[in-house]
Amino acid sequence: MTADSPSPTLEERLLEGDRRALARLLTEVEAGSARGLAAMKVLYPHTGRAQTIGVTGSPGAGKSTVTNEMAKAYRARGKTVGIVAIDPSSPFTQGAILGDRVRMQELTADSGIFLRSLASRGSLGGLSEGSMDVILVMDAFGKDVILIETVGAGQDEVEIAGTALTTVLVNTPGMGDDIQAMKAGIMEIADVFAVNKADLPGADIVVAQISALLSLSTADGWDPPIVKVTATEAEGIEELVDACDQHHAYLVESGAIAESEANRARRQIVALARRRLLAQLIDHSGGQDRLDELVTAVAERKLDPHSAVDQWIGG
Predict the structure, then answer these.
(1) Which pTM value belongs to this model?
(2) pLDDT averaged over the chain?
(3) Which of 7, 19, 150, 160, by CA, is between 20 and 30 Å from 126?
(4) Residue 150 in contact with residue 189, Cβ under 8 Å?
């Protein structure tokens, strides 16, 4: 670069592997700033190459430890890894402790791993609003594998299935997961089942329950494997990584990856449109004051919620 040539943009630096540019642009896209939106337009054509794996399950199932060990296993195979870890936000302040950043501290010394902790900011689906853009920016940066650990919201945490190509559902013995195995919802989204803490009594029972559930499935194509792991000892992690790779290979070889990408794009467009329309509604329909008036009327039983929406949308 000569003295008269312009300095490279953040996007150009990111595409060349500059981690500082990655960190700065992640902050912008997570915030949904104008700079972040401009960056997404430039970076999006460079996405679609990463293998994305969602790790979900009940709180306390050991998702962080499983994610941590999977990252190390992929690095041992020569893959670069991005981690997007979602932590729960306070319903009052919207702040978060971001404990995953502390639990995965040992990974930060590896330049082949980039960890980003995000707050859920009240999202009920296990992911934060800006998480999809964060994943895409890491994809554009060139990460081979991106692991997405969800907040652990429970049975309705199914949003990850529309975000990651492969969904790993972590179960453990002795946490009431025997009941969960008989219910719809989160159990239906798993591409791979991981039974963590397999050294504890009851692990084989959990495996049997999941197997019974899968035997009732009428889905064609992929049969989700069940992998027993003890993540604290890194036992079974290689088999879990193999199962994820096999699922990704199945998606590519069967052509199902195109459908998965289309579904992901549809979900993201609808989610962004919903968020933007709501923001416009607040800005152009009397603002927050008008909303507060309607809230008061509904709370005082002077107006029903449906009529309040009609009045709000109708101006």
Answers:
(1) 0.86
(2) 84
(3) 19
(4) no
